[in-house]
Task: structure prediction
Amino acid sequence: MENKSAEKKPENKNKEKKEGAFKYFLHDFVWGIGSVFGYIWFRPKRVYVSEKAKKKIKGVAILISKHTGFYDSVYIMISLNYRRHHFVAAKELFSSKFKKFLFEKVFLCISIDRAVVGPSTIRKIVSELKKGSLVSMSRH
Result:
């Protein structure tokens, strides 16, 4: 019986990897095409405060930025292009089925209701952090 349980574990891990790869396919495809135009249009320049700031963000992290315009999330994604971002977005953006699909599956946004901030909001963010994700949000 011990051999059977040991054999099942690798199958489950392979299945999870396949599902994970498909889960991020749309996001990676759109990011791959969009990043080319983003680099041409915005022409980002990286300026570091110190040598310590040049280190890449690894593992679980929350990135908080000051929201000054519509393109802030694009700037963040271009400057930290080595990680997938899960942005926290207002519930109003998920108004139709198409927008919900677009923001959840393609842009990896976490929907929150700003009027009712409670434990369910925090659970959504914490569940992404437990997966080892980078969660980005703005102070707005």
